Amino acid sequence: MVSNFGVFTLGDALITFNPSDTGPLRYVSTFSRKVGGAELNFAIGCARLGLSSKWMSRLGGDEFGRVIYNFARGEGIDVSEVKLVDGYPTSLNFKEIREDGSGKTFYYRYQSPILTMEPSDITEAVLEGVDLVHLTGVFLAIDPKNLDITMQVLKLAKKNNIPVSFDPNIRLKLWTIEEAKAAYMKVFPYVDILLTGKDEIELIHGDSSNESLEALSEEFKIAHLVIKDGGNGARVLINGEWHEKEAFKVQPIDTVGAGDGFDAGYIYSYLHNYSPLESLQFANGVGALVTTVSGDNEGLPELDEVFAFIRNEKIIER
What we know:
Elements: E1 6-10, E2 14-19, E3 31-36, H1 38-48, E4 52-60, H2 63-74, E5 78-85, E6 91-97, E7 103-108, E8 132-136, H3 137-142, H4 146-159, E9 164-167, H5 177-187, E10 193-197, H6 198-205, H7 210-220, E11 224-228, E12 234-238, E13 241-245, H8 258-271, H9 276-291, H10 303-310
Parallel strand pairs: 1-4, 1-8, 2-6, 4-5, 8-9, 9-10, 10-11
Antiparallel strand pairs: 2-3, 6-7, 11-12, 12-13
Helix pairs in contact: 1-8, 8-9, 9-10
């Protein structure tokens, strides 16, 4: 069931090739084709939770672009702002997965079709019916021009009183930390909900202590400063008060996409006025479930699955 809440995100999507075996990529000879991309994962996560999810992107006018377009549409995502562009190959990545579920990603996104997007593409109509805008640092990292597009989205969101969530989602294979920090400093003043990993905020801010983060929150007037810390759980700073929730104990198979799932879970709980601890518990639950399935978004759960998991309810299998 789709809720009355609408979320919007924009960004590149990729065809992801998942290895058939764990270990260094040089020893893997077969792969399965999947669909990935941080913003698309988020949009899928929101759609599966029942939110009305709108994703804006540019895909190659090729077979891979059509795979992604059809996949997103099949997930119930609004793809009215997704265009297929000839002459630009759809982005690819290859994943390396180790025995413990950790891994590396190798990107092939030169001349990404997202490069054809312009600030003028962001109009009032794009955000019509949207209750929250979610952006990530991956889109910013692909090309310097994307900062102008991002600022256009942020200014329109502010003009229309639409809250903004932002996940730095640092990709140091795409840009330097100095470039990232410079862009983030322009974005942060518009951010209501900052969803960042503990390691990421240390790279950006140099310190992840509560006192230092309280100063950061005050400086940029961030209403919800959420720190994701994987298996250690998560915490959030709201109105000067910290709230913390432990992670769910699961056996991770593939950690890619867990942060995007957490983001979708937190935004769902935010829009539905959950308490801080309820929000963290719900988001932790979504993130944990993602890690139990191989793939970027295959493990993103439906709403009833999340409730069953966090309530430790028994699932009738047959």
